[in-house]
Amino acid sequence: MTGAADLISVRVDVNGTIYERRVEARMLLSDFLRHELGLTGTHVGCEHGVCGVCTVLLEGDAVRSCLLFAAQVDGHRLRTVEGLALPERVDVPHPGRVDVPRPEAVDNLHPLQEAFRAHHGLQCGFCTPGILMTLIPFLEEHPDATEREIREALSGNLCRCTGYQNIIAAALAYLEDPAATGLREQ
Length: 186
Prior knowledge:
Strands 2-1-5-3-4 form a five-stranded mixed β-sheet, with helices on both faces. It has helices at residues 29-36, 111-118, 128-141, 147-153, 165-176, and strands spanning 7-14, 17-24, 55-58, 61-64, 77-79, 89-90, 100-101.
């Protein structure tokens, strides 16, 4: 049984909102995001860092949240898939979480999300958040990426539905859009 003395404080900026929680030292970041913060866009698949569905951005870099403890991100900045779109924000009664997008208000998609929509880059959607969060920093660092380089960048993300072709098409379309901007904060 975990007592209050076994809990540690974690303070983290997630999608521009500061959260502070006391959690078990062994709590995975993926569980922290999903169960403590209610950010369920970060999915859990293999829990071994192989499938990529739990990918989030830590200080702008893609990381597997199932391989990190919540304690390891104390004092850092995270971006989850929920932080990609720029929806209208509303106050929602949820402990420690008041800056929550209304699902019906999400009409201002990130340019990469829009490219996925336009090019049918998803089917069931389970892998999509991890793929988006993998591609964002890669495409920003490689604005002239080739199809082969994009495929290599996604080699750690498993998708059983799409066959990847439309995902690659969406990524290439994103690169061709001069108005497309990413998330990496300077």
